[in-house]
Amino acid sequence: MLLTLMVLVLISVAALAEAPRWGRRPSPEKMIEKMSKELGLTKEQQDKYLDEAKKIEKEAEESNAKNKEIFDKIEQELLKDSPDKQAIRGYMDQISQNRTGIQFKRMEQMIELKKELTAEQRKKFEEFMYNRKKKERHS
């Protein structure tokens, strides 16, 4: 029973470690290209958004590297005869905080971008977000 549980947890941890590959985000350049097309961003707006997106992408890569190290710690803990559940919980909390931090920065960036948009661009932005959400629901 314990062996079965450990195998299931190891498989789950391995799947979580691979998760960033499944939902890989487009590059900041691709994102700005799409948003420029959809919203009609000015060159100044594009440059500002792109600079910030690149900073966040770099932070996300660093966060993913940290999370991989933490997943390695979880795997090592699971290989022990008596894995420490509290240690594993602590590791999982760290991973969650890292991911949430990056997501929060991305949301802040969107809020800042929206402040810079003209009234017409804001309307297009809202339509863009609505259609994106609608598309996600049907996937």
Describe this structure in words.
This protein has 139 residues and is an all-alpha fold. It has one domain (2-137). It has 5 helices and no strands. The chain has helices at residues 2-22, 28-39, 43-78, 85-116, 119-137. The protein is elongated and about 60 Å long. The protein starts with a helix and ends with a helix. Residues 16-22 have low confidence and may be disordered.
Q: Count the helices. How many? A: 5
* Domain module tally: 1
> What global shape is seen?
elongated
Compute the average pLDDT: 84
Keywords:
139 residues; mainly alpha; 5 helices
Summarize this structure briefly.
This protein is mainly alpha-helical.
How are the secondary structure elements laid out?
Blueprint: H1 2-22, H2 28-39, H3 43-78, H4 85-116, H5 119-137
Helix pairs in contact: 1-3, 2-3, 3-4
